């Protein structure tokens, strides 16, 4: 399996780190039993939007080392974006993940 991050618009102040343990190659989606840690965003910072958005308003990004294999919502990745909002000044920043798993902040 691989490692992943689970984002949920109904919990905009945190995200979940998980181990995709289903089968040898995982099933490329988050399940509650796979939760490793809940990460809380800094005060005043929330998840504003996710892309692509699943039908359950979530986004799962899974990395399979050592190869640069990345899945987004159970499909081979073309890319993903998490937009964070700083709620005092209403400014936003986009965190992007490309198909190789490269993470960038814009």
Describe the structure.
The termini are far apart. The chain contains no helices and ten strands. The chain is mostly beta strands and 106 residues long. It has strands at 2-8, 14-20, 35-40, 45-51, 58-64, 69-72, 75-76, 80-86, 91-97, 103-105. The mean pLDDT is 92. The strands form two sheets. A six-stranded antiparallel sheet has the order 3-2-1-5-6-7, with no helix packed on it. Strands 4-8-9-10 form a four-stranded antiparallel sheet, with no helix packed on it.
Question: How would you summarize what this structure contains?
Answer:
The protein has 106 residues and is mainly β. Helix content is 0%, strand content 54%. The protein is built from no helices and 10 strands.
- Across the major sheet, the strand order is 3-2-1-5-6-7
Give the amount of beta strand, in percent. Answer: over 45%
SSE pattern: EEEEEEEEEE
What would you report as the Rg, rounded to the nearest angstrom?
A: 13 Å
- The percent range for helix content is under 10%
Count of distinct strands: 10
Tally of alpha and pi helices:
0
